[in-house]
Amino acid sequence: MEAVANNQLVSIEKPEIVAPPNWEPVIIGILCNWCSYAGSDLTGTSRIQYPPNIRIIRVPCSSRVDPWFLIKSLQTTADGVLVSGCHPGDCHYISGNYYARRRFLVTKKLLNFVGFHEDRIQFSWVSAAEGPKFAKVVAKVTEDIKKLGPLHLYKKENFEK
Amino acid sequence: MNVEIFVTDKAGLQKFYEAIIARNETWAPVEKFGKFDFKRVSSLGECDPDSPIATTRSAKPLFFPRSAKIMKYTADSTGTRVKETDEDPFTAKRVILGMKHCDARSLQVLDKVYNWDYIDNDYQKRRQNTVVISTRCDKAETHCFCTSLDYDVENLDAMDVLIVNGTEGKVHITARTEKGDAFLKENLDPASCILHPVSDEELKKQYQAFAASFRLKMNYKEINEKLSKIFDSPEFEDVSANCISCNTCAFVCPTCHCFKISDERVKDTGVRYKSYDSCNNGYFTLMAGGHNPRPVKYRRWRQRALHKFVYYKERFGENLCVGCGKCAVSCPVNISIFEVVNQVASNEVV
Amino acid sequence: MDYTKQIQEIASKLFAEGKIDVFVGYRLTGFDENQVPVLIRDQKDVSQLVFNDRSVFNLVNYLKYEHTRNKRVGLVVKGCDSRSLNLLLTESQVKRDKLYVVGIACEGVVDEQGNKMQNCMECVFPDAIVADEMLGTPHEVRKYKVNADIDELASKGLVDRRVYFEEVFENCIRCNACRHSCPLCYCAKCCIDQETATLYNGANTTSGAFHALMTWSLHLAGRCVDCRNCEKACPSHLPLHLLHKWNERVIYENFQEHLAGVHEGDRGAFYKYSMQDPDDFIM
Amino acid sequence: MARVGVFVCFCGANIADFVDVPKVVEEAKRIREVKFAIDYKYMCSDPGQQQIRDAITQYRLTSIVVAACSPRMHEKTFRKALSDAGMNPYLLEVANIREHSSWVHQKDKKAATEKASDLVRMAVAKSIANEQLHEISVPVTKRALVIGGGIAGIQAALDIADARIPVVLVEKSPSIGGKMAQLDETFPTLDCSQCILTPKMVDVASHPYIELIPYAEVLELEGFVGNYKAKIRKKASYVNFKTCTGCGTCWQKCPVKVPNEYNMGIDKRKAIYTPFPQAVPNKPVIDAAHCTMLTKGKCGICAKVCEKGSIDYKMQDEIIEREIGAVVVATGYDLWDPKPYEEYGVGRFKDIITSLEFERMVSANGPTNGVPVRPSDGKVPKNVVFIKCIGSRDEAKGIEYCSKICCMYTTKHTILLHHKVHDSHAYVFYMDIRAAGKGYEEFVKKAQVDTAATYLRGRVSKIYKKGDKLIVRGEDAQIGQVVEVVADLVVLATAVIPPKDNPDLARLLGVSYDKYGYMSEAHPKLRPVETAKAGIFLAGCTQAPKDIPDTVAQASACAAKVCGIFSGDTMKKDPMISTVNNEYCTGCQNCVKVCPYGAIVTEEVPMGHGSKEMRTVAKINEGVCQGCGSCVAVCRSMAISLAGFTDLQIINEIVSI
Known about the structure:
heterotetramer, A: alpha/beta, Rossmann fold, 4-stranded parallel sheet, 5 helices, 14% strand, D: Rossmann fold, FAD/NAD(P)-binding domain, 5 domains, 5-stranded parallel sheet, 28% helix, globular
């Protein structure tokens, strides 16, 4: 609490870790090809601006996202992860996002249980038409994770930021 | 060397420990989740050096770490550069308290292999910089059989300082090596002790009581000989049937020293690790071409038993077993290596 | 709860009738009250078999090794064990017609100190679900209870939980006894054992242990039957049940009260879905 | 070791203005595996592609990273460049530094550059793990399914069938013809709609390659391009079409009267009916909701009077299954219900009608024999007010887009009014006159002169009743005054909207759709008739509002696409599919359970080398697999991998940010 009073940003999970000055979080965005990736392209074509912290990885479907991608991300380069897919019922592959949704919930709750702030792992449904929504989602996730401070849990030892 | 025996009482011992902890980097058995394990300690309150319960895992990780970083490298377009790894936390000068005799003995066994064709400098450094203080057990546990093996438990010189609980609350402290002698001079306040003037009779008495408490007894020479002849014994299949190949025995064993080398890379930085491995692991012997000479449990079990009691003996003149019983204690299905080797050896090949 | 005699009789009969090649049961260690799983291959060894409240280990685990593969197996299962057997049947790992299952209406087993195991006190299905023959008086199906440890830990703050689990992962020595003792971990090669440098998670460090245990518990989420083989196997005595029970609770509360291995053909919570699944955590 | 070439595009100023491109190149050059990196103004241009081709041979590159626009845009282009240079096209990775960096971080060049560098590094890391992939050949069922029998469906079906490819044409209503059959004359030529449409309808009915299934709907479509299986429900018509001669006695005698949909409910039809006289097929169906024999079991007159005994009250819905290679979706459009315009008195004033109602009235075969009348008193109106953009371009009440056709048909309506009622006068309230199209502007100009209609630019604010007249109050923006027009009849040019069940159909087909319910094309400019799902094409208003010439053009384009698929006995398929590593597969069959396409089966393989013991493993049917990766994520032993998106590729991306 003291550190906060001094206007220093600390890691929410490990308050002893203080963010370096001008610290910017790295967020990994894993997007499904048909809805969210197309939606993020639309954000681009519409020139809607959003914070530059997100790094986007394209996968065919949200159901391709194995929970260990999220674990690995948080253990290496990321301070937070966003996974985005098609809205329920709109999956290009019929039912992929329904399976993915179950895995996401359990993964999120489990990571939260062992001490990660729940906002480190976020999910969204963004359709190919929702360019503005994608920008809003990224802005929100970035803002959330900025508040949480740097992630310093179980990082791989050879990871140097 | 000339043996001096210091005699003190429980309180004096506590003071001795406190002095050690205050002056040295000290490792001692600490309880976590109901099991004891060697941990770095900063006060006597954290640990229990005289715990009658042996540590679940041996002191091996302090000399042969679970995952040692053997190098660190970066790779970019200008080339691959090996970077200095962080300082090895185990090569600092340190003291280990509360090591049982079997654990201490295991270091002598390991020394053989680490000084063999390749001299492992890190290991040597760790050994040289460590003072081992060992307390003799008062009583054997269920799976203990150290007295049945090829070393003299009573006159063991694997520890630098030996502590023995005598009668009437007396505690005997002896240096067993020169390093130990020097250490005692530095850390033990002679004022709190009586210098034992006479023979070490009391120690002998304690040892006899301790030796009498063993349930398991075997003739290791017979075992060595019989096992060397029964490579094809079908008995191995029987004794390995309830093994679940879980590797626990090798990981807790003080003498198992198999490892694997693997790289982990993030961004352009990689670390090369040397981590524990176990011959019970199904793909321990899997070769790059896909062939696996030990695809089934009994072959792996045979390797384990024979390596411990035949191969190592042939090469280094020692059993690769110190009779600590840690494997049997930790085995999820309560398999005891004592029973296994005896069972195999008792069924001679026709 | 002592069915030693009955089980010896059943095994003896099965061998005499030539119905089985191997019988998986328990025998005494020979030096204390604890028991060792035993694979009996001959009628003359049947007298080794015992069964009482110290018959803890889930024998279904033995169905994945070469000693039982493609053989006709007799097997003793308690309630939790039978649920894992149910999953193995569903996941085509064993063939029902090759098994002779002796089901136990289980009164609960005890740990090495003789105290009743925590999972037995919270057991929902004490009676074997899959069985050719039942021993004991059947129980009513009990109500699902949230694990007490979970409740306590979940009510703590984020930092406290982090501190607690950091200790857990730090004490893991990555011997993999947990996964080898788990009847549901039967993969030929575990996904955690990767060799490629970027995929590698094998380092025997806290972060490696975190990765391994997280991945492992997610692979068992919605499948774990709470037999606690893993916890008993763990040489560091880690509270592994916390991860599984937490997942079980999340799944039970969110996915139509799913419990693993209760119904034949139910593969676990991640291999089905419902339109009613919670969606509010997704933006 | 991998030798990667990195090619960074300026995209003119699109990337270069907001990302420091030379810096990105410089950063890329620092990566160990990158052996060549360069920037260029337009990488997608031929000289740009030439650079890639040259570098591949000169630097012996093993994979290529192009940092440019979205891979959804030019991945194919660059893949082609790779294969032209003799390299496997799937060794390409695209780093999306335009849509994901330069266009969205225009205010922060430093951050955008950093991000672009990261994206390149990720793409390089991924590309190192790329494998050579080869296109897959899949056998093709040469039969097309056309959904919807309006002019789009008719045109597509005829064009495909003329190429001697069998077509199954499914129409929801009892007759094909669609909306165009309801029109009187068509702009800008004032052709008689019926005269140009009905011959095509007859052609459909008689074409040897067309199987017409009217009064039916598609229930299920499973499979994949070239190998779909469609389940079609043919609704019970209660009339045996095989024996019915279409004589008409039944509907003449039927006592039940129902509002006639074809005439927008202005007159009545019977419970047994053909939608209109020129219907194809010209056989009646029984409207089960209204027939008293079917609802109450009383009547049965039609069965009595039918000489052929064609009436069968016990007829059931029939499920028809067809194997299909490609699908054309031509479900057309609906008109927006103007009810939200309460201030106009919609619903309260009978003399406010929609344009399609007006169209039916002025139609020669319409309910009023071609003369417009006031619904309230049947009198012929003199002053008629046309109001455009009802629902269109109206975010508050209707939809945002322009319905495209209303300007033109309203112009047409002023002409038709002028023709039918010589002494009438038309007033047109408009926002803009959008007359882009061949002959359209001329048509509007001529109409304005010929009809002397009064064009008032402005929105109508209110309509109220005064006596039997309607007073239309609106603004004339050109003179900046509020005007009031005394009208006998008000015609609302209601917006074009997608059919209500379009999203349902889209979901059933696995096609994406936009927020209005129009189905989405694969690319708005370059792939306007394809959907993102291979083998499914869009014709007409199911994609967006359009007029008849555009619809017909798109329908023919669909036909060309379908014929393209069917040009060989097999077709090429993307190799981004799953494969099973038998060594690791445990045979648990979780993948079989979650695969949405049923693409995974099991096979028996030996336990080990030369072993006689067998075990079960999963096997992917590569023709059926669509590459979603669901199976990969549920495969605990990591035995399945998805080409192009392997675990190694994705993790490489993650760890190299």
